Fold each of these.
Amino acid sequence: MYVEAKRGKSRELWTFHGGLHLPENKTISLTGPVRQADLPTRLVLPLHQHIGTPAQSLVKVGQRVLKGEKIADSTAPVTAPLHAPTSGTVIEIGNHPIPHPSGLPGLCIVIEPDGRDEWGELPQPIDDYRSADAATLRSRIREAGIVGMGGATFPSAVKLNPGKPIKTLIINGAECEPYITCDDRLMQDEPERVMEGVRILQHILQSEECLIAIEDNKSEAILAMHNLVRDDEPIEVIRIPTIYPSGGEKQLIRILTGREVPSSGLPAQLGVICHNVATAAAIADAVLEGKPLISRLVTLTGEGIREPGNFKALIGTLAGDLIEQAGGYQNHPEQLILGGPMMGFDLSSDTIPITKGANCLLCPTLEELPRPEPAQACIRCGRCADVCPAHLLPQQLYWYSRAKDLEKTQDYNLFDCIECGCCSHVCPSHIPLVQYYRYAKHESWAQEQERRESEHAKQRHDDRIARLERLEAARKARLRKKKEALDKKPPATKKPKPGAPDKESKQAAIEAAMKRAAEKKAKQQAQPKNIENLTPAQQAKIDAVEQRRKNAKETAATSETEQQP
Amino acid sequence: MEFQTHSSPHTSRPNRVDRVMLQVIMALIPGTAAMIFYFGWGVLLNVILAVGAAVGFEALVMKLRGRPVLPPLFDLSAALTALLFAIAVPPLLPWWMVVLGMAFAIIMVKQMYGGLGYNPFNPAMAAYVLLLISYPIEMTSWLPPMLLAEHSLGLGEVLSIKFVGTLPQGLTMDAITMATPLDEMRTQLDLNQMISEIRTSPLWGDFGGQGWEWVGNWFLMGGIWMVYKRTITWQIPLSFLGGLVGMATLFWLFDPESFPFPLFHVFSGGAILGAFFIATDPVTASTTRVGQLIYGAAIGILVYIIRTWGGYPDAVAFAVLLMNMAAPTIDYYTRPRVYGHGGVKGG
């Protein structure tokens, strides 16, 4: 019923290969409306909670900050600023555990709230966003520190500047991972906020159509959103089948448009851009109220949590503090997952902070999500290939990853793997397949990096040799010229010694040498110019440019993984 | 609070190797029971002997390799290999040939390549072929099905034949054994008999041989159950039988008196057992879905060719081993189109 557009058109949906019908376990956390988390005693704000260049602190230890005040930023093109989630004092800037699969600590600003929750000066709301130009709105979104809140945390403002006309704006409300319900709750409780954000996005991108995709297990959310769509706007709420990973950006695009994002390409190449519903809501806050991104909805769920549910938590709240507010732990859980069971990663402790991309804390008991049994040999059953949404051959990839045959893994398109975990889930031998692919990817990146570095070194070496040769040739030419001048000075005072080269042949030799030098020089001109005799300042500038270029490349590569399912 | 960390996904896994193997073994039970019913104690003794030997050899090799002994026994793969071998060989096969077959299957064909998952050839079929080539007389001396037997052998008699090699008083091997329907058909055709004449013998049932075709039916039921449970995919059995029926139909239409009708081929020999239980062994078969269609069809066609023009009456084992060799190549050329690569073009 909701698939039908209001203009009476019925939209055709496509399917992607593979996928899984998983136990949803969503009711555990659908216990009621969103609860507002209390102000914690400490907020830990990682400087790098987005894809791109880490932000740099703008505050000092001991400084008092106000709610919404910018406390970190960077001049890099792909980055996001950070804001104080409440008023208080900066008590520390240092390394703390951060939510990262590596488990390594990262630089964080620690704020002790003063309890007054006093707002700082906010930018003027842009009530009439329809008459504002895209650049203004993008800059507002950038300044608000908004990143993709579906989990991938790519800076939204960068994504909103595709440099290509966008035909279809997709709003991702699929929320296909089991257990997680924060997007569902957001659409049910604050559909107006989401819808305003969607309209702003639509205005910025000037897309022909806007499709809000929601899995059909979220009927209330579909209804709530559908009721807000006006007749005069090209926005449709689309009910999509519940199948994991329908919320993966590539899979969602396939479901809605029947087209596939080219391998190592971006959705914008198809004229498509995806944004998450929570990102849309944050954009509405930033544009219509001037508020930066300082809080988000987090699902606390699993049998290991006493009172599961959805919480509106300040960014920087420690996981343990939040779980405390949900009644604390029960049933002796041994695992805490950030994200969903399929793609989330295990936290080693609950002292890590909630970041902009943290959508779920899942604390299951051992009975609920038992540890996989020891891996056995692959029996080549092919179930992994049946469920792979990228239509890869996971078992071949496993084979080559295990054999460290990285070239072969790329032949089998390792980098098209989205690490959704479907293959590992169905594997009867319980092989941690995704872990093998991550390993092979990292090895490949490391190898590529090494190759690039050695190429760079070789280039520098070649350039140096060429430069030395050029200088040597120039020196020789100068010497000859000098000698020639000396020879010319006493005209005919000395008689040419027998056997000594006469003037003419000398002249010819000089000319030949100069010609050779000139030729050599011309040859070298074809190579990069002006790289010798650099001042330290110039070299620093070049290094900075190189670094920026590298960052831009990296973010371009990672942006395709934006909006994880 | 501190927690342990593991790699994602963190779900409880629905499948397990031993459950897959167990499902195959369960699907084999009706057909095996039917064989015991029709061919007597020898089949059951073969099963017990083969399973015992296979498990023993597996444990021995694991011990020699310095690996944990128990896990590979509980994955049931050795037991399944043994069961498939036991129902493929004649009921009166001497005990030591059964043990020899299992030693070859488990030690040479399976474990020397690295154990479960690494063997390029189907162990049960390799052992079958080894024995068939080495001991052709013993390997083709089948008992007549119960309905046709003049003398049904008791447990004691079977035991003494298998273990001591002494026949019951007053009986010769020729008297108690009988050619298989496939063998009989070949012999008669070689004597330039017409099929309509051959089939007047009481040996024949509706499609294949008396009794034999019922064994085929029970295996078919087990096979269909496996497809329904998704233990195996439909591609290999369907294309196997399709290839066989296709070839048989072609030649039968050409000359129905010299080439048996298609269902004769389906319900004779190891066709159904092969299509659902042997060619579908995932370790040695093609793994891509398109590849499986090619793999199955090629086995079906090879079975027909060897049965009709080859030197042996049945051909499933040879056909499967031949295609085992081709499986990696088939897989290589039937890789599916990956998302975002060619085909459905974006932009």
Note: The radius of gyration of chain B is 22 Å.
Amino acid sequence: MKRNTLHATRDCFVVATFLLAMTLLVSCAPVDLNAPLPPSVTDPSILTAWAQVPAGDFLFGQHEKVETTDAYEIMVTDVTAQQYADFLNAALADGYVKADGENVVGYYPGDPFHGIDHEIEIKAGDWAFIPLDDPSQRVKFDGSQFTVQEGYENHPMTMVTWFGAWGYCGYYDYRLPTEIEWEKAARGTDGRPFPWGWEIQRNNANFYASRDPFEDMKTFGSRTTPVGYYNGSTYGDYVTLDSKSPYGLYDMAGNVWQWIGDVQPQEGFSDRFMRGGSKDTYDMDLRAWVRNSAPPMYFSPGVGFRCVR
Amino acid sequence: MQFIKTRFNYLFGSTKGLILAAIAVIAVVTAIWGMLSGPMAEMGVREVVIKLLGMDIVQSEREGRIVILYHSIAMAVVAIETYMITGLLKMKEFFKMSVRVLITVGYILTMVFGMGFAYFGHNWAFHGLYITGLSLIFFAGVLLCVALWPWNKEYYVTDKDYAHTKSGVDLERTAFFATAVTTVISALFGAVPGSFFGNGFEVFLAENVIRLPEKTTMEYSVIGHLHIMLALIAIMITLIIGRWLNFKGAWHKVAMPLMILGTIVLNLGVWGVVTPLEPIAHMIIYVGATPSMLAALFLLIWSWSRFIKEGTEHLAKPTFLQKLGAMVSDPLKFGPTWQMLFMNFTTSGIGIFMAIRLDEIFRMWPAREERIELTGHWHALSAIIATIILMYYGDMLGLKGKVRQIYGWSIIFLSDIALGAVTVFEMKRLFITEAEQQPLVNLLMYMIDFGLGMLLVLLAVVMVWRLTDLFKPKGRWTEEATHELSQEVVK
């Protein structure tokens, strides 16, 4: 009797393990990264617009420390895939970047290095701006020309390293925003946690499981929305809320994390900050003060950037 | 009136009643607050709960709310362990009573007023009462240390089966004492920065600052506090399970000195983070963790060997399967040490792997990925401690036969499915890209939700059963009111 029970237990265990292994294997099967995109309209005027941020104090961080900035201008939207492809075409012709097969690379003069624990040495030299061989890359290269996968022209440029973001801004004599500049542009001066105000609803921004038309949580999950998508427009049945920041910027919360320009904000900290949350994070990460960071060679379908001047 | 008085006396005057009450409040808090995050938030349940209960959620206060929530649950768990210690170990009745009164009032004040302050508007009187609760628990801890004093000759042992010094000092009691003393001191590690709050200390979650090389002493103190308190809760439950199973013999004699040594060295390492020893503090912590974990391993070896021996003594030449069957025949006794072993997969293994490959792998990922690993592995450890408590509690309830099997194996399978999935979720970037992860994430979330959800359902069934039992004049509670845990130690 006891022996039968043991055999039954062993059989159950074997069957359960087999089923679990099969389910895991099926779950790891590739998803369609090129699934069709829903229709959307982007106002072309915002793609080249710059917002004016005046000089003065504002409340920085979760604990509202008073910080101050000079006046500056910041892009109203993230740099788009089309803008980045245009940059690469121009920069390739100028010799500012090279395509080495797997990556587009460009020169970076290196970081100061202190040899502190966990610090990465970023030496002067060529560093990857974008990978070319990753299936999530929406900018394609045919050997002579960079183009954008159809439908993604006005989506934020993703799969770009910090070097690639730094290189883009520098090419046009712009620069990446400092952390303080970025946060002031996102939340203004009244201490609000989100660009549009104090609370967040699902149709304020593109975040994880926000139920926007671009996501399908059963298959490919959350995807980027075109820049400036959350402007109060209605797309089919989907109604967005106008979610611009006090200075008129779009997508300062959600869609993609944005690279910050600060290099070694603390001695030995070789990561670069990223701000704003993304399509892949919960709403708590969309609060204006939330930091993320990654080494400058990191790239992802959920990381983009914008410039200041 | 008599009806209420007798039930009150059971719930707050007997060991099993006190444990039942604490488990019940943890279950309620876990069930309600579990609906505010993760998949429940995705499904929109969070908004409903917030509205229904009239919670006042301010975005910038999330980290503070979570700190209070963790403390509220942790204090009830500490209370449960304290009830177990005072029920298992010999001590003067005055101390037993005082410790229990203080810690019970303490955890209830902490939970009620802490959660009231954090989630239902900021009544600062509530905050004061929350601090009062924590202070009472601290004082209960000090009294427990006095009660456990191992050099009191009344508690000396002469039985050769148990670890003791030449003069008779009980080394198991000393291990309990060392853990209690270091817990009290380590509590100060959180209390000092916590008290500094009014003077400008700003609340933060450790996982959010882990990569920044510059941290203040107070920040180090908080990070040390949260790590060591959970480790000490885990060490204490290991000692408790050992006492319940009547751990003895050669393995006991090796394990107890290791447990004492490990606990002390581990704490010295953690306290070292706020001293000039900070650069080598991690090394000291590893040195301390090793003997503690070895001691737990020896408990496992001893207990499994004993289950096999007792379960096969009627057989002349037991086969491997018969031995295995004997080992797992009682899930409530096998389960706690199995969970300790499983913990090496969900917590220690992950921690060691991360430490070894930190720069090559984990620091190449964004900080938010590292946050998932950090929060995941200690949530898993907390859940494992909870399941061990529930298994011991199942034995206290006197579960027998099929009910015992179903209860015990359900806890093991459901929690291991959920926590195994959590571990794969933490490590998913090793084998799948962000763009392709969603189907895997969905599967893992189903496993986590199924495991933890069904575990809560099981707990709810037990709680409803215990609640209905309280209405019976001759319910099980009447027997439990007079039973002490020390009488139920495995012979």
Note: The first strand of chain A starts at residue 50 and ends at 53.
